[in-house]
């Protein structure tokens, strides 16, 4: 047997060799589902003589797609020609080639959520941005469920009668502008495939093999797309894990996986039951928590790697301490046990939590990267840069136009800008909506200052355009030398030129000086990323597409040795040697608005986070957290209390009332007293223990009192100690009496009066 097949276990091998009927691989985390897909691609090319161009493999993130391509190529270099993409990137590819059939220009720009909200705000005057964002969310859901503005089921998403009209108007505006949103990347290809049988035939002929990873998170529209591409001649194989379905809020339909055998007749099902990623104690924690969900398919998962280090649960006072705990843990581990920064990943529930970690890691000079976060591209300077590129590519992009036309100030007032937009919408059909042309027409009407400013802007865009050649040489005629930004290969010279010439670089450099931000280096990072793309029309379109689809500068950072900061959602499919899941507090993870099915989804998310870890797992929870400008005291996450105590090691002071999972001994077990002083072999709590002065004690320092002890008082009767703290004059005891009174007293004065 060929070596690459002999490394697989029998079920995995069976899945790779499987052919003919549709195949569903249903298996838990780390069981080799993705590995089966990559191996299968290579196997089909190598052993079955399948033309790699006829293979379509769909994954969840661009990073996963790249990895899949690399791994398949390691086995057989011909696999490079297979189409390995995300659903969205496949949709964009499809639309660039076939969009013209429905009147879509091939150089459309993909609107992100923010652009969508801006567009909606202009459709819905007198509404707040928050309201527009809500409608944007509903439109996105409608598209996920493949619902048009006329669909009767639309009311299930938003029952307000006006929603239908806004959705319709939004679609019309988007079409007029010539751009698409994320949902369109799936919805429009389906519409084209349905409306044009010859196109459908062409694609069905081309893709003989369709493979889908992370199938549990596909949505209705994506299912429709699969159906259009599928014929009885297609070999279809999907893999997934119902316990890892975490995108229901974005319209993912776990039913897609549960009902797969009904929808594709004669489906074969293969289960993989051995986990090769994590050690047994890590899997035990994952299993104990996800077990609390109802309605699971239920899968066995055997830890092939056997025993390992017990996961650690750490109670901390606040998020700053949490950040320094993480940083110190990483530093200590590197110092004492070796390894690399990239062994480590810090996971959090929401992006807003990343900032504290970023600040702490920066301060300590620990290299890190933020993966998959919206943050980078949400930064003002980056949005400005992208708007310049967008308006250059598509002169009808109103949102981009508004963003940069008078930034930095070119002497154009709002009235003039509105006039330009208005004139564009009434222009001759050939140039309707073309804002740059409308700018040119309005020039004679403007004051000298405004005219100069606008002429300069148009010149820069024209010059930028001329820098992209059909040959894709490095942009030769870049005439702006910059000492602020460095131009490299490919498109990066164009980016540096447009940023400098337009004044945006200077604008943000000033901001750096005033606010001490990192804006210029962010712009530089954008230019660096662009150097991987040729300076051609297509290269630019691809670059913009990559950004819209991926929203992280993963490429190029890959080889750097750095700690990964990442939301739990974004860790899907990934693995790290050492994982810290942070912010495990009620209200944070799970979020407080989550109940019933939503709570189960949060639990699956926790399961995903835990099962990313190969060797070590740390869970942190803080008593106090500041989020969105508010500070609040939170209880430890419900999920932590579902872990039996003997499955984990505890650091820090256990808050009163915290109960662990059912199979363990009770927290009141005397052997666990003083758990805060116990240390993990890799790094004592040290300073963190000292930062817990306000945490409740269970036994007074003079040894006379403990929480729960009964006592008697002449005046108040029988009572029970409920709190113990340490004051400057010794232990302070608080007791609840049968009369309902709660009384505080100093141990040293009062001890005789009680029994
Ligand atoms: P997830 O559900 O998290 O996406 P998965 O089922 O896709 O996980 P993979 O990522 O394919 O799992 O595999 C998990 C890890 O186990 C990888 O490091 C992979 O290389 C390794 N692995 C898979 N199968 C085997 C095997 N037969 N022998 C050794 N290692 C394996
Ligand atoms: Mg996988």
Automatic annotation (TrEMBL):
The reaction(s) catalysed by this protein are: ATP + H2O = ADP + phosphate + H(+); Couples ATP hydrolysis with the unwinding of duplex DNA by translocating in the 3'-5' direction
Checking SUPFAM superfamilies in the record gives: P-loop containing nucleoside triphosphate hydrolases (SSF52540)
Q: Which GO terms describe its cellular component?
A: cytosol; DNA helicase complex
Enzyme class of the recorded protein, top EC level: isomerase
Q: Does the keyword Cell division apply?
A: no
Q: Where are the transmembrane segments?
A: none
Q: Which GO terms describe its molecular function?
A: 3'-5' DNA helicase activity; ATP binding; ATP hydrolysis activity; DNA binding
Q: What range(s) does the UvrD-like helicase ATP-binding domain occupy? A: 6-279
E.C. no: 5.6.2.4
Task: Family membership, please give it.
Answer: Belongs to the helicase family. UvrD subfamily.
Instruction: Please identify the protein, giving its name as recorded.
Output: DNA 3'-5' helicase
């Amino acid at each position: 047997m060929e070596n690459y097949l002999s490394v697989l276990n029998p079920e995995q091998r069976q899945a790779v060799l499987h052919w003919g009927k549709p195949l569903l691989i249903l298996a838990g985390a780390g069981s080799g589902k993705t590995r089966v897909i990559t191996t299968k691609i290579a196997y089909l090319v190598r052993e079955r003589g399948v033309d790699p161009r006829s293979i379509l493999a769909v994954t969840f993130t661009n990073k996963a797609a790249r990895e899949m391509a690399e791994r398949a190529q390691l086995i057989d270099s011909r696999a490079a020609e297979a189409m390995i993409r995300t659903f969205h990137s496949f949709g964009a590819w499809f639309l660039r080639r076939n969009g013209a059939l429905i009147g879509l220009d091939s150089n459309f720009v993909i609107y992100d959520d923010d652009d969508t909200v801006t567009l909606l705000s202009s459709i819905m005057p007198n509404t707040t941005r928050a309201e527009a964002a809500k409608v944007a969310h509903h439109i996105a859901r409608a598209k996920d469920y493949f619902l048009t503005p006329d669909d009767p089921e639309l009311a299930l998403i938003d029952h307000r009668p006006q929603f239908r009209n806004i959705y319709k108007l939004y679609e019309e505006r988007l079409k007029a502008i010539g751009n698409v949103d994320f949902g369109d990347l799936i919805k429009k290809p389906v519409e084209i495939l349905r409306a044009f049988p010859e196109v459908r035939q062409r694609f069905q002929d081309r893709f003989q093999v369709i493979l889908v990873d992370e199938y549990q998170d596909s949505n209705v529209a994506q299912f429709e797309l699969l159906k259009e591409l599928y014929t009885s001649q297609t070999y279809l194989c999907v893999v997934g894990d119902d316990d890892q379905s975490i995108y229901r809020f974005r319209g993912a339909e776990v039913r897609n996986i549960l009902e797969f055998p009904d929808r594709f007749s004669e489906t074969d099902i293969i289960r993989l039951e051995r986990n090769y990623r994590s050690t047994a104690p890590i899997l035990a924690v994952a299993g104990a928590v996800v077990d609390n969900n109802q309605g699971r398919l239920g899968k066995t998962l055997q830890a092939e790697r056997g025993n390992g280090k017990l996961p650690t649960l750490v109670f901390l006072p606040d998020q700053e301490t949490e950040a320094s705990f993480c940083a110190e843990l990483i530093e200590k581990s590197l110092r004492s046990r070796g390894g690399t920064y990239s062994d480590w990943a810090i996971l959090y529930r929401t992006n807003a939590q990343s900032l504290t970690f970023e600040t702490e890691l920066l301060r300590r000079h620990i290299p890190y990267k933020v993966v998959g976060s919206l943050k980078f591209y949400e930064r003002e300077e980056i949005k400005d840069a992208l708007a310049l590129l967008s308006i250059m590519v598509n002169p009808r992009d109103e949102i981009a136009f508004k963003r940069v036309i008078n930034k930095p100030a070119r002497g154009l007032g709002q009235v003039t800008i509105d006039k330009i937009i208005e004139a564009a919408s009434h222009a001759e059909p050939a140039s309707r909506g073309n804002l740059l042309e409308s700018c040119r027409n309005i020039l004679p009407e403007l004051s000298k200052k405004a005219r100069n400013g606008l002429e300069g802007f148009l010149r820069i865009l024209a010059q930028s355009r001329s820098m992209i050649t059909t040959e894709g040489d490095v942009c030769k005629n870049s005439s702006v030398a910059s000492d602020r930004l460095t131009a490299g290969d490919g498109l990066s010279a164009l980016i540096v030129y447009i940023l400098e010439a337009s004044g945006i670089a200077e604008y943000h450099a000033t901001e750096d000086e005033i606010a001490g931000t990192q804006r210029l280096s962010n712009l530089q990072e954008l230019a660096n990323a662009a150097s991987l793309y040729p300076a051609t029309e297509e290269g630019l379109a691809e670059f913009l597409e990559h950004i819209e689809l991926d929203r992280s500068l993963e490429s190029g950072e890959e080889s750097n040795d750095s700690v990964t900061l990442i939301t739990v959602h974004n860790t899907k499919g990934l693995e790290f040697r050492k994982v810290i899941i942070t912010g495990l507090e009620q209200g944070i993870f799970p979020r407080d608005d989550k109940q019933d099915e939503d709570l189960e989804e949060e639990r699956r998310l926790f399961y995903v986070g835990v099962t990313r870890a190969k060797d070590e797992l740390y869970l942190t929870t803080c008593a106090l957290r500041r989020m969105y400008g508010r500070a609040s005291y939170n209880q430890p996450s419900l999920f932590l209390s579902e872990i039996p105590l003997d499955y984990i090691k505890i650091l820090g002071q256990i808050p009163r009332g915290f109960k662990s999972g059912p199979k363990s001994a009770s927290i009141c077990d005397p052997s666990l007293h003083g758990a805060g002083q116990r240390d993990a072999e890799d790094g004592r709590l040290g300073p963190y223990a000292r930062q817990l002065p306000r945490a409740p004690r269970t036994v007074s320092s003079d040894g006379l009192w403990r929480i729960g002890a009964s006592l008697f008082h002449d005046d108040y009767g029988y009572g029970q100690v409920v709190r113990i703290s340490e004051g400057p004059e010794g232990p302070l005891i608080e007791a609840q009496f049968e009369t309902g009174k709660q009384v505080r007293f100093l141990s040293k004065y009062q001890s005789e009066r009680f029994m």
